[in-house]
Specification:
Layout: H1 3-36, H2 54-58, H3 71-79, E1 85-88, E2 92-95, E3 100-105, E4 108-110, E5 124-126, E6 129-134, E7 137-140, E8 157-164, E9 173-183, E10 191-202, E11 208-213, E12 220-228, E13 231-237, E14 244-251, E15 260-262, E16 267-268, E17 278-279, E18 287-290, E19 296-301, E20 309-315, E21 323-330, E22 339-347, E23 357-365, H4 375-380, E24 382-388
Antiparallel strand pairs: 1-4, 2-3, 3-6, 4-5, 6-7, 8-9, 9-10, 10-11, 12-13, 13-14, 14-15, 14-17, 15-16, 18-19, 19-20, 20-21, 22-23, 23-24
Length: 397
């Protein structure tokens, strides 16, 4: 009788020890798998929810607590302003990780409108601008002066492409990635890209801190950027228009650290070994995001200047394989002669219900002039917004 319970206790202890050993082994395997898996799968930044976050809570304006989950709000944000911001293209959106969204724009007209809707004499032309969204409040960055981000002592200018907050919720700075452009003639479309830089801003008030060239200039890296866990993924393409998009990554805490490049099989240190992750001719300029459900999404304008739709791709990893979704939303012009649509961008920084995604594209005209814009051009130039649902990938894993 005395040995029975002892034996049973001994067997129970052995089973517990075996189970504990198995758990330790499984934990070691899981840890090893996690090291091999993308860091993003372990820790991803929470997307902005309109009306939440410390910056929103601290803003006393009623508009900071108004909802912004409809395309109409973003159309009004860029088409109905009264602070001198008239029209611009791009835009890219950056989650400031405090409840605000930083909207980055390219070529921008600042000034006043004539009664007929055209730009009044004396308006100025900036090559970039920014709006800061706090709930439904949107404020113009650097309202005054000769521009938002300018290059001292140079005629070159910057077009922003994206950004992120190193350090996440506790980050003190914002890194804004910009393409350095140079004019080649008097025409509005006479320009070429000559490099890529990163501008550092203080997150609290977006004051300029400094700028550094990206450590690799072989391609226009950071045409699209996604901070995901401990990795910052930088997509890039060649200096000349082409069909291929490449991928690099670096730790989010130091964009000037040790970069790695996708070579078709793995990430390595040699930039010359980089292989395209997505190819779509004849001209490809996609912008990437990662959705809350874990999927990666690439958005582009079909045939960029010639097509009439926004197209997309989905993937389970940033390096792909990327699978085409087909057309996601129509992107037509208004029908005026010389108009075209271009540069489609997804905005995962704006959180929408029911797993929807805000996307934008732009309308411009071949008749644009740096000397001013007529009413028909003003009516057309600038971004358009729409909300889409990204189709599920039905193919097996």
């Amino acid at each position: 009788m005395g040995k029975g319970p002892a034996r049973r206790n001994s067997r129970a202890l052995k089973r517990a020890a075996v189970a504990a050993a198995a758990l330790i082994a499984l934990s070691a395997v899981a840890t090893g798998c996690a090291r091999d898996a993308p860091r993003a799968e372990r820790s991803r930044p929470a997307p902005v929810a309109a009306g939440r976050g410390p910056a929103v809570a601290a803003d006393p304006r009623p508009c900071a607590r108004q909802r912004t989950d409809a395309p109409g709000f973003f159309r009004l944000m860029t088409a109905g302003r009264t602070d001198g911001w008239l029209a611009a293209d791009l835009p890219a959106s950056v989650d400031l990780r405090d409840g605000r969204v930083l909207w980055l724009f390219g070529d921008t007209w600042i000034g006043a409108r004539n009664p007929d809707g055209g730009i009044a004499s004396g308006a100025t032309f900036w090559h970039n601008s920014a709006l800061v969204q706090t709930g439904a409040c949107t404020d113009l960055g650097n309202a005054g002066g000769t521009g938002w981000l300018t290059i001292a002592g140079s005629d070159d200018f910057w077009w922003p492409s994206g950004g992120y907050v190193p350090g996440g919720d506790r980050g003190q700075v914002v890194d804004v990635f910009v393409t350095r452009m140079r004019r080649t003639g008097p025409g509005v479309f006479d320009f070429v890209p000559v490099g890529a830089d990163v501008v550092e801003l203080r997150r609290a008030d977006l004051t300029f801190i400094g700028v550094r060239a990206l450590p690799y200039q072989d391609r226009l890296w950071a045409s699209s950027v996604v901070a995901d866990g401990r990795w910052l993924y930088l997509f890039g393409h060649g200096y000349a228009p082409g069909p291929s998009t490449y991928l690099a990554r670096v730790r989010t805490d130091n964009v000037h650290g040790r970069w790695q490049f996708w070579d078709g099989r793995r990430f390595g240190r040699d930039p010359a070994s980089a292989k395209p992750v997505l190819t779509y001719g004849p001209f490809n300029n996609p912008s990437m995001v990662r959705l809350r459900d874990g999927r990666w999404v690439a958005i582009a304008k079909e045939r960029e200047f010639d097509g009439a739709a926004v197209v997309g791709w989905t993937a389970r990893r940033p390096q792909g394989p990327w699978r085409a979704t087909g057309p996601l939303v129509a992107a037509p012009t208004s029908g005026r002669p010389g108009e075209f649509t271009y540069l489609a961008v997804p905005h995962a920084a704006v959180r929408l219900p029911r797993a929807r995604l805000l996307v934008s594209w732009n309308v411009n005209t071949r008749d644009a002039s740096l000397d001013g814009l007529s009413d028909p051009v003003v009516a057309g130039y600038g971004p358009r917004f729409e909300v889409i649902t990204v189709p599920r990938d039905r193919r097996p894993r």
